[in-house]
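[Meeting: bench + compute handoff]

Bench side (C.D.) handed over the final construct sequence. Compute side (W.E.) agreed to return the predicted structure before the next meeting so the bench team could plan truncations. Sequence as handed over:
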Amino acid sequence: MFTLLNNINHRVLSLWVSLLVLIFLTNANVQAQVDLLSTQYMNNQLLINPAYAGVRNSFSANLFSRQQWMGIKDAPTTYALSIHSPLNKRMASLGSSLVSYKSGPVQQNDFSAVYSYLIRLNHSLFVSMGISAQVNHFNVGLNTLELIEDNDLAFTTNYDNGIKPNFGVGAFLFSPQFYFGVSMPKALSSELKNEDGNNVLLEQSQSLFVTSGYAINVNKSLVVKPSFLGRMRFNENYLFDVNLQLLFKELFWIGGLYRSNSTMSALLNVRAGKSLAVCYSYDFSTGGKNSIGVGSHEVSLIFDSQRFIKRNRDRRFNPKKKKTKEADKALESIRYF
């Protein structure tokens, strides 16, 4: 593997990963809010890694909803829509995402435009490098809170910082059975202060995401898919997800997840057609004191279609010695993930 990277685009890949680490280290002293939390990260990685754009080698759309702590008023809710696709006959891809997060009086809306470029390392190994441009909007609606004492002047104003720019970077290495990604979806910190500027009401800073997965073909009908996600920040506890799924005849998945904050999840994905899949997951506590996202529901609709793009053999996995007919039957994308 290392010999291959040294021979083909090793410098480019090293510089890209070094940029991720450099941005993270130079901003390590900033405290952060909780990052986007998703149990189904393996199905919608565009929200955490811009290099994922185009990796599925299809026009791909994901509609996502997460409802946390069901039964609790003003509990966190997240809605997201992401779309990405390769450009015809090119190694570049474009994408975009819209995320809306609300928790109590706090609301955050993010819009991202994504660009990625795919590099073939050999017949069945690619690396994608991506960058995103973002606009982030934060709002704290204090006047929506129910107060013990009415007419409290401190809670009569909404704090709105308007629109702030941001950007993200990432790299994604993958084969038909394996992937490894590293990314920083938000490279700049954001703050929301009160009117006099003395108090910081809301902060969002850098986090480094590392994700990996492998597909083990047990037989023609069964695939075992272990995967991993790590969210890493200085001055705070790291958060890790370990997931195991079973894929039956490429029709439905069942699996479970353990998160390092003492949360477990059950997952079920069903393919409703050639281009559509429905995904559901439920998070529950295992008794830890610091559990978050307990009693949480996630639902995703995933749409994948190659009808809207032209086939590009340079983006496909191919046998070492390929003939024309074999190339036409080559795997189109990393659809296991």
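W.E. noted at the follow-up: The radius of gyration is 21 Å. C.D. will use this when planning the next construct.
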